[in-house]
Amino acid sequence: MTVLKTSMRNFFAHKGRMALSAVAVLLSVAFVCGTLVFTDTMNTTFDKLFQATASDVTVGTKESSDTGETTSRTGKPPVLPASVVTEVRKAEGVKSAEGAVFSTSVTVVNADKDRLSPSSGAPTIVGGWNSNDARTMKITSGSAPAGPDQVMVDADTADKHHLKLGDEIGVITVVGTHHAHVSGIADFTVTNPGAAIFYLDTKTAQQALIGKSGVYTEVHVTAAQGVSDEQLKKNVTAVLGHDYKVQTAKEVAEANQKDLESFLNVMKYAMLGFAGIAFLVGIFLIVNTFSMLVAQRTREIGLMRAIGSSRKQVNRSVLVEAVLLGVVGSVLGVGAGVGVAVGLMKLMGQMGMNLSTDDLTVAWTTPALGLVLGVVVTVLAAYLPARRAGKISPMAALREAGMPADAKAGVVRAVIGLVLTGAGIASLYVSATADAAKGGSAWLGLGILLSLIGFVVIGPLVASVLVRVLGAVMLRIFGPVGRMAERNALRNPRRTGATGAALMIGLALVACLSVVGSSMVASATDELDKSVGTDFIIDSGSTGVIVPQAVQAAKSVPEIARVTEYRVLDADLTTPDGTVVKKETINAADPTFAQDLRTKTVSGDIADAYRPDSMSVFEGFAKDHGLELGSTVTVDFKDGRTAKLTVRAITSDEAVMDKGAMYASIATVAKYVPADKMPQDLMLFAMAKEGQQDTAYKSLKAALHDYPQYPVRDQTDYKKELKDQIGQMLNMIYGLLALAIIVAILGVVNTLALSVVERTREIGLMRAIGLSRRQLRRMIRLESVVIAVFGALLGLGLGIGWGATAQKLLALEGFKVLEIPWPTIIGVFIGSAFVGLFAALVPAFRAGRMNVLNAIATD
After folding, report:
1. Transmembrane ranges (predicted)?
2. Which of 121, 218, 656, 844 has the maximal Cβ count within 10 Å?
């Protein structure tokens, strides 16, 4: 009880000094709990949607995915005949069976040819209105579609794109463009996470999406009263046999949820990883806080020991303070985590994914995990200061000797740090000289971990050297004030090292990712310049296919000399050694693709791969299966016949674009794959006539105006988009790393604040002998700047080393250009100096307000 009272008294006596440490715990716990609440809420939202929209039993084709996805390379969904509906109705236990048709291989535009698609990446779905949809949709305006010129739209899409009754829309598919007018607007009875949904009547949907009547994409079956879904599935399967995919509502929901989980898990674990980095940085803050608080209470601890307190009791007293700090920070963090989750939901809403707070899900495990994490991390961070406190002898403490200097421990620490750093550098070297990316990546991860730990451990030794160098470069120009700031930073190298290390971690990751991102952009740009020999590239985008009418529009541009079509097919390959390779990809293109993409070969000429009954293979595949020029490969095309193709070229594995591709001509593939099973174009490559590039660019864009889903890009556009995509990804990562950097800044503030308190008498004496308030504030600001710059130098240097090593592995995949983004690195370095200035504002202000006499009289 005495230990608890003492700990409580100390905790509240230093509540101002504990506040920033509590904020660090709060932020980290909030990010963890916010991530878990957000992902749990998304799971709940989609789970309700999947359960509400699934019929008791669903019958689909074998080709359809478990999640009902209808996107295919032909641009048409797989279908089953209307006779299946009749057969299903004969099954015992069937109350009703209804055929349905829908597709996601569509683009919907308004009268101005603007796309009516979600901005969140969710699909655009066009289907036939049926009774199963009527269960989950409520018509709020107008009426359901009742003819070929009518369409109904979901309320969210109507609001987003300002659609109203009577507005014209166009549904673009491989069949053609179907025009209709909005006849009704319907709202979901459950949350719609963001898909854009359009309903035609069933007959019109069949014609618009598939091009013929009497077919469906799936059959919705409702069970009679008293018949379970499992029993109904057995009965339907008994009637249909095993030629179709039959699933219960639970199986459909689980398949959809499993597909969603793969996306959510990537996001969840990535965000938790950044929260872990913030926790790691927070450890340095807490260690520094408790180390300084223990040092400031040296005489108090000595008195406690002198009157009978044991080492364990002193140790326990400090750890109880840590538990209190962890509990307070964690409880507040759990509450803030719910706010973070709501904020993320609002952010996703701005991006087009609607998540309702009505579905906010806070599982009991979330606050429990947040509380346990916060308390455990805080106690672990406080353990070393608590252990050192217990070692203080009563007489040393009463003599105000402070924390005992342990030279032997410092030497051991330096040796361990040097060994770890050396091992990390050696691992990075092994990674950089590896022959295979897979093996090298393991050494890279080990090297990053060891070098990071090594720099943290060796921090005090590095600080004692680097701060002197920084002092000579940055501080000496400020005269005596600068020299005092340097000595203050050097007074406790362990403290300076820990404070700088907290900032180092976040900046090292920023620098590493900047180098990797810039190198990837530079390598891809260089590869584009070397390999791409066409003027314009037309991508299928999110739709996955380029509709035939868009291809014809591109070919009709008079300024275009040629248009190369490019498709992708699945096939099983049988090599001469008898090995069967399942689900390999064959890239089919026009012969002019050999000019559009200058593919490097190790044997043969790539142009020969487009000869009749010919193909190319990539270098690794040829080595694995003993293939050479003239070898015959048996190609069993999916949805087609079997062909025997002769290897005419072997492409290099050093390529970046289309690495590992196997090529054949479209004419060759067309001999073995029926026209109705032939995939649509994935990309188009267009070459302008000599000297007409600018005119052709404008004309091509104009020709494809009716097809806004297909952007026309020249090489400059393509490079810009590539840079923007990587830049957006990096900005998102930087935003997440900002949490760790904020915690590190709090560490600098806390260290300075406690340092000012620790030096109260010294500050009073300096003021008494003539140091002005302005000079005092400048001294503290300079000390803060040099600590921040010290951490930045370590972090940026370490990060550049990691990034350069990672680029060596990327070079094995074809990304051979190393580019260090010096503007970013220099900007971060300068920003670190401003971080130091910002962190010193409050401590410097408080130091300047000290009463000189009271400061001198401080015990």
Report:
1. 269-295, 318-344, 364-386, 407-430, 442-475, 496-516, 732-757, 782-804, 824-845
2. 218
Give the Cα separation of 28 and 270 in Å (integer). 14
Task: Provide the CA 421 distance to its chain's centre, in angstroms.
Answer: 30
Q: How far lies 565's CA from each of 177, 205, 658, in Å? A: 21, 28, 15
Residue type, 497: G
Both tokens assigned to 28: 């980290």
How is 274-339 classified by DSSP, letter by letter?
HHHHHHHHHHHHHHHHHHHHHHHTHHHHHHHHHTT--HHHHHHHHHHHHHHHHHHHHHHHHHHHHH
Express each pLDDT in 801-842 by its tens digit. Answer: 999 999 998 888 778 889 999 998 998 889 888 888 888 887
3-state secondary structure 133-153: HHCCEEEEEECCCCCCCEEEE
- Whole-number Cα distances in Å, 835 to 504, 585, 786: 13, 52, 11
Q: Residue 45 contacts by C-beta under 8 Å, 6 or more apart in sequence?
A: 191, 193, 355, 356, 359
The answer to whether the CB of 181 falls within 8 A of the CB of 166 is: yes
| Distance from C-alpha of 763 to C-alpha of 681, rounded to nearest angstrom | 76
How far apart are the C-alpha atoms of 38 and 35, rounded to whole Å?
5
**Nearest by Cα to 105 from 159, 163, 175, 47:** 175
Tokens, residue 575 = 């090599």
3-state SS assignment for residue 740: helix
Q: Check: CB of residue 353 under 8 Å from CB of residue 191.
A: no
Q: Encode 268-282: b = buried (16+ Cβ within 10 Å), e = exposed.
A: beebeebbbbbbbbb
Number of helices (H), then strands (E), belonging to the chain: the values are 27, 24
pLDDT at residue number 642: 93
Contact 11, 321 (CB under 8 A): yes
For 396, which DSSP code?
Answer: H
Tens-place pLDDT, residues 421-466: 999 999 999 988 888 777 788 899 899 989 988 888 888 888 888 8
3-class SS at 402? coil
- Alpha-carbon distance values, 390 to 386, 395, 403, 643 (Å): 6, 13, 10, 80
Contacts of 826 (CB under 8 A, 6+ apart): none
**Do the Cβ atoms of 163 and 182 come closer than 8 Å?**
yes
